[in-house]
Write a structure and sequence with these properties.
The complex is a heterodimer of chains A (410) and B (105). By secondary structure, chain A is α/β, with parallel strands linked by helices. Chain A is 27% helix and 29% strand. The chains are: A alpha/beta (410), B alpha+beta (105).
């Protein structure tokens, strides 16, 4: 009998891999090893719907919508869920070893181990009232704490930090966001987008402090205030840490696989061992000539489909157009593409509501960021998939619409 | 509760859908094949595409811009009765209806 395909991690990558294997007609047994108890769950609602204000019914509905699929799904598709922690990959024997001592043989192993939250190394970080957000349990704890606490300090002005700030402010909390760099979300969006969201947060009463480092968290038995590097103290009944994530690559590293910023994989998402793939947040892969690691639902799910098709006998290099989104207050941010680092032109398109920012590298469109312009986002995905060239002067001319380019391309 | 019939080829699944629950979520909860729902109901992925059958089309909630645009990204052809099922919430005004699922999401 052929050994099963073993998937480590029940996040978006792991779940979609199991789903895509069955959709591709692969009949090999699949074992999804998840360290978390319960059914595998999706994460976007943890910083959005779960944190929103609402009565018990609304909250119950948000919580009930977390699992990707009900238990029946796994049984019906012969996907075995194993709640256990993998502690070692035994590559010569093609086995993984679990914390309880059991071993599972694999014909192919897929690491979908995701990431863990970075934690600031500062005094007071372990005080009660200092929380982070990764699991459903974290989100439920946080939404409960938002009922009780008035002063909320968010450490880190990235997607997660700002989505939490938005939910907390909408629930009437006094919110301060501490961002170490000179603008929010600077790692993932351009300056005009940061500016838009900073203005939006300020208008809703969120105080965003840029260039602000949390130096210490103070409190007797529970958090009371956050001290900044410049000595300023900000009152805090609740501190939410959102300073980014680190790829969960320990298993791969210990097994001697090539690991740098995440688990190194080739264009088909194979690691340095041809029996092991890595997908999602934990994998560093080549895309458009740059080795990168992306942290998104789209990346995990599209990686999963690429690996499933390879295991089904149709190998193809990974080439999906990345997309991301965030929702803060009433504004929806949608991003298509990723920067190559060689961008030399930026064009802003303004409309009656919202705007888009186009980024070009040598005349080629690489990234389109849209705020409340879903039409631009959708057109951008198609343009990016076809490698569209854009004349910056034309794009800056009056009356230009992104759809004009689509007409050229087709 | 209103009933929603999901048709895929010759398969039919009939699901009780509580008011306030989206047709995408009800399909997921009911373990219906043919709906992926990759983005979890945020009108970002177009993998919960359905064709709404019959005159139920006239009772549907109006389409917001993001749904209308994302329908350009469906894997199967967009038709006049195409909708993203994550954006259709069951209501007393909508009531029972049937949808056909596309070949590909």
């Amino acid at each position: 009998m052929i050994a099963p395909i073993v998937v480590v991690g029940g996040g978006h990558g792991g779940f979609h891999l199991a789903l895509a294997l069955r959709e591709a007609g692969v009949q090999t047994p699949v074992i999804l090893v998840d360290a978390r108890d319960g059914l595998p769950v999706q994460r976007p609602p943890l910083s959005k719907a779960i944190l929103a204000n609402g009565d018990a019914t609304t909250r119950g509905r948000a919580q009930a919508s977390l699992p990707f699929r009900p238990a029946d799904f796994y049984a019906r598709h012969d996907i075995r869920l194993r709640h256990a922690t993998v502690v070692e990959i035994d590559r010569p024997r093609h086995e993984v070893r679990l914390a309880d001592g059991d071993r599972i043989a694999y014909s192919h192993l897929v690491l979908a181990t995701g990431a863990r939250n970075r934690r600031p190394d500062i005094p007071g970080v372990d005080l009660p009232g200092v929380v982070e957000l990764r699991t459903p349990e974290d989100a439920l704890h946080l939404t409960g704490a938002l009922d009780d606490e008035v002063d909320v300090v968010v450490v880190g002005g990235g997607f997660i930090g700002l989505e939490v700030a938005s939910a907390a402010a909408a629930r009437g909390r006094r919110v301060t966001v501490l961002e170490a760099l000179d603008r929010v979300m600077s790692r993932v969006v351009s300056a005009p987008i940061s500016e838009h969201f900073q203005v939006l947060h300020a208008a809703r009463g969120v105080e965003i402090r840029t260039g602000a480092f949390a130096a210490a968290i103070h409190g007797d038995h529970r958090v009371a205030e956050v001290e900044l590097a410049d000595g300023t103290r900000v009152p805090a009944g609740l501190v939410v840490l959102g300073i980014g994530i680190l790829p969960e690559d320990r298993l791969a590293r210990d097994a001697g696989l090539s690991v740098s910023n995440g688990i190194d994989v080739d264009s088909t998402l194979l690691t340095s061992d041809p029996s092991i793939s890595a997908i999602g947040d934990c994998a560093q892969f080549p895309l458009a000539g740059v080795r990168r690691r992306l942290e998104s639902v789209q990346n995990a799910a599209d990686h999963a489909r690429t690996v499933a098709l390879r295991l089904a006998g149709s190998p193809e290099p990974y080439c999906a157009v990345p997309w991301f989104w965030s929702e803060q207050f009433s504004s929806k941010l949608q991003i298509a593409g990723v920067a190559s680092g060689e961008e030399d032109a930026v064009v802003r398109l303004d409309g009656p509501r919202g705007f888009s920012v186009l980024h070009l590298a040598g005349g080629r469109l690489t990234v389109v960021e849209s705020v409340d312009r879903p039409a631009d986002h959708v057109v951008a995905r198609r343009l990016l998939a076809s490698g569209a060239m854009v004349d910056a002067d034309r794009a800056r001319s009056a009356g230009f619409r992104l759809t004009d380019l689509l007409a050229d391309a087709e | 509760m209103p009933l929603v019939t999901y048709r895929l080829n010759d398969d039919e699944n009939v699901i009780d859908v509580p008011e306030g629950t989206s047709l995408m979520q009800a399909a997921i909860d009911g373990d219906v094949d043919g709906i992926v729902g990759e983005c979890g109901g945020n009108a970002m992925c177009a993998t919960c595409h359905v064709y709404v059958l019959g005159d139920a089309v006239t009772r549907l909630p109006a389409m917001a811009d993001d749904e209308a645009e994302m329908l350009q990204c469906t894997a199967s052809e967009r038709r006049e009765n195409s909708r993203l099922s994550c954006q259709i919430k069951m209501s007393s005004a909508l009531g029972s209806l049937a949808v056909e699922l596309p070949e590909e999401q």
